[in-house]
Design goal:
The protein has 224 residues and is α+β, with helices and mostly antiparallel strands. The protein contains eight helices and six strands; from the N terminus they run H-H-E-H-H-H-E-E-E-H-E-H-E-H.
Length: 224
């Protein structure tokens, strides 16, 4: 099939009442998502994870270049290598890379350089941003808006995992170059986000945080 030829859009228009029901149900589900740092070692269904990654890979992207790559890690040895490498960088961060304001802002979250969740979680999903692509002759091809595109895909993934009944954490050890090395990724792939995935422990607690009210995050400019 010629991909340059448009095809009919598959779209169903709902009554306003159904639109609102769906929107409110989605918001109600997503507002319960919390970042988890205490994971049970119980395994999660791989097919569920794969389906969530399919959802993430359906995100829109600049010029439809789909500049993302996902690495799903369940090997305990690889998870341990990732943890050890991440903690090396995090020790540097807490020892001086991060300024006082940054450290102060992190205090309510109770974080430090120790990252046991990178081993405790039954799987890790590492999202890589493809800075450029390659054609079937290994010729370099330009990618566009890669940060924005991969950010949208990451949001799709977190939403899909949450709706599937899994707990997640958005982890960004900085710098993250070690992930490409440990996971044997080509130079064009830059680590974007590391997501531990699994079930929370039965005694899991999370910080008592409050989200901003709608009026603080929304500006409406109506024509009336």
């Amino acid at each position: 099939m010629d991909s340059s030829q448009p095809i009919p859009l598959e779209f169903e228009r709902y009554p306003e009442s159904e639109m609102l029901r769906r929107a409110e149900a989605y918001a109600k589900a997503l507002v319960t998502r919390r970042s988890v740092r205490n994971f049970s070692p119980d395994p999660v269904p791989i097919e569920v994870l794969r389906s969530c990654i399919v959802a993430a890979a359906s995100a829109p992207s600049g010029a439809h270049k789909q500049p993302w790559h996902f690495v799903l890690v369940t090997d305990p040895e690889v998870k341990r290598e990732i943890r050890l490498a991440a903690e090396v960088e995090e020790r540097e961060n807490y020892a001086g890379r991060m300024n006082e304001q940054w450290i102060e802002d992190l205090e309510p979250l109770g974080t430090n350089h120790d990252k046991p969740f990178l081993e405790d979680a039954p799987c890790l999903i590492v999202i890589f941003r493809e800075a450029w692509g390659e054609d079937d002759k290994a010729k370099r091809r330009q990618h566009y808006y890669t940060q924005e595109s991969v950010g949208i895909a990451a949001g799709f993934l977190l939403s899909a995992l949450h709706l599937a009944g899994l707990a997640t954490l958005t982890h960004t050890p900085s710098p993250m170059g070690f992930l490409g090395t440990l996971l044997k990724q080509p130079a064009r792939r830059k680590a974007f986000l590391l997501i531990p995935v699994g079930y929370p422990t039965e005694d899991c607690h999370v910080p008592n945080l409050r989200r901003k009210e709608l009026k603080l995050v929304l500006t409406e400019r109506s024509g009336t």
